[in-house]
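Posting here for the record, re: N-carbamoyl-L-aspartate.
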Amino acid sequence: MRHLMSPLDLSVEELYDLLALANDIEQNPGKYAHACDGQKLATCFYEPSTRTRLSFEAAMLNLGGSVLGFASADSSSAAKGESVSDTIRVISCYADICAIRHPKEGAALVASSKSSIPVINAGDGGHQHPTQTLTDLLTIYSLKGRLNGLTIGLCGDLKFGRTVHSLIHALIRYSGIRFVLISPEELKIPSYIREDVLKRNNVPFTELERLEDAMPELDILYMTRVQKERFFNEEDYVRMKDFYILTKDKLTLAKEDMLVLHPLPRVNEISVEVDDDPRAVYFKQAQYGVYVRMALILTLLKWR
Ligand code: NCD
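Prediction output follows.
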């Protein structure tokens, strides 16, 4: 049995197989409509979510399976003080596979250690968000045709943004990847990623503050929301929240075939006028999230 805590839990080969399966699911949905008949997915969400939880549920329903779960800590026994370990032991009796989101880093790992069913980390605090990364990789792979030889700009809250942390981990395994890390000083990438992930693996990167300076060289621009819920005080958040706003004007500096990704939810960091630009693919990206989660559920249940 395998769990998914980080995108690195899949080898490069396994990941290509997963993306190929997701592409096949997109092309031939009917072929998979009963692949999980009689099986159940539990979604245990201790933190707010729209896309991740609903795309997991849609994925399992598309496969013919069923779903159960809770959408907030308040509506589960966590509100009575139950531990994640105890909850997952019980969920293991009710479902065949589980996706868990929790505000504490490492919570999914704790759950996986007590679980008798595959556990998928659907976001653990500011740490990792591997299924968003699978979504991002499928989007890039499907629309660019490759995962190597790309200059990728990551913009916004690089300190607390778990989607950014997971995406960097996943992409350093491909050749010719270069990162441009665009953030205000206070929201720079954590030093463990700069030192232990980027420098240690000799991955080229630059850090800068102005989005306009980075724009012309980018193949991918990955925008992120300032992670309000991870700030220690409201004042700092208010000061940072509108630091970047991608507008049509700024987009004129970009390559014709650059892609704009965003894990969503968007707040103000991409102006709605950008949505009509063919380079804006964040809503398509949300659709890819369903295919890749279908592929992941199928794969983990097969390995069980
Ligand atoms: C992200 C998350 O939860 O980390 N959302 C998502 O899953 N698509 C990004 C965010 O909340 O900013």
